[in-house]
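Hi C.,

You asked whether I'd gotten around to modeling the 329-residue construct. I have! Everything is below, sequence then structure, no commentary in between.
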Amino acid sequence: MNTVVGVAWGGFTSEHDISKKSGATVFNVLQNSKHEVFYIHITKTDWSVSDAAENEYNLDKADFSFERKGEKVIFDVVINMIHGAPGENGQLAGMLELLQIPQSSCSSYTAGLTYNKRDCLAVARSLNIPTARFYTLDQGDDYSTEVIEKAVGFPCFVKANRAGSSFGISKVYTAEELPTAIENAFKEDTQVLIEAALVGREISVGVLKWKNKINVLPITEIVSENDFFDYEAKYEGKSKEITPAQLPEAWTEAAATLSKKIYQKMGLEGVTRSEFIFEDGIPHLLEINTIPGMTLQSLIPQQLEAAGISLLEFLEELIAETLRKKEYL
């Protein structure tokens, strides 16, 4: 019997439409596989399943199954393509763990940790991984622009702590700009992270399990036309992405070593992407993306191509690796 694969997309956040594109890429590629593949669409109001013929079925949240032609169908594996909540923050992973259905990303605990930028950076520092100086705020906190300036300096980045795709992020040059940037970040999350702006070359490093070994993909250097790698730069062509990056060999080795260490020590699974900026030749971690984009504009597909791995080969190995989780679920 063919493996029943669900491709989960959608979510509860501003990243819903990006997730839809990622899910579509995966779904379409898997039409050339031997698996039986379905979309799983998740929003705050609708959990449903559909197939390539656009037949739609209700998803039973109790056991993550659906009924087709009078028979109950249960997924053998779920490929998690939900950027943001509930896919990237661990909620979906926790649900599937309880139901003993393997999913392609990391555990609910690790997902929750890495999705929370400031907690993730704190753990990274404990592992001697360089990061920028940072300051934190919760909604309702009183704050002083003078204290923030002393902690991180200007320019700095103000970010929604639990958001992706550059939603809720601003680059701030003066104390006068801080309140508006903080207000903008609070529109996406109740927690804010304020980081010193590192000056240097920015890279993105993909890591995945390949044939039972942790592998680092060819590194991408990001050269944004805008002031930083914002939404326009990521998705609307306002950046130059160079894969493989033309870096000094020592820099490449340092970034690869740190990325592999992060993958191992933080318990990452599936394919991930870590972002760094080189300052004084040292890679500083910006963030970890445990469900990186798979759109036609995304970096992981570029890195796979540079590594000589087709999307179908990658997805077949991802499914095989995910199915191995059944041994300990």
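If it helps when you're writing up: The longest strand covers residues 201-210.

Thanks,
B.
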